[in-house]
Amino acid sequence: MSVLRLIVLILAALIFFVGTGLSQESNGFWPLTGEFSAEGTYVGEGDVERGGKHVNDFDEIDSDIRVVLTPRFKLGVLRLGAEWERFSFGFSDGAPLPNTLQSFSTIIGLDTQWSDSILVRAEIQPGLYNSGLGHLFWDDFNMPFVIGGTYIYSPNLQLILGVSVDVERKYPVIPAAGVRWKIGPQWLLDAVLPTPRLQYEMTRNISLYAGATVRDATFRVDDEFGDSHGIPRLNHAVITYSEIRTGAGFDWKISPIVTFTGEVGYQPYRQFDFYRADVRYHQDGGAPYGTISLHGAF
Question: Which of 14-28, 59-73, 131-145 is the most confident on average?
Answer without folding.
Answer: 59-73
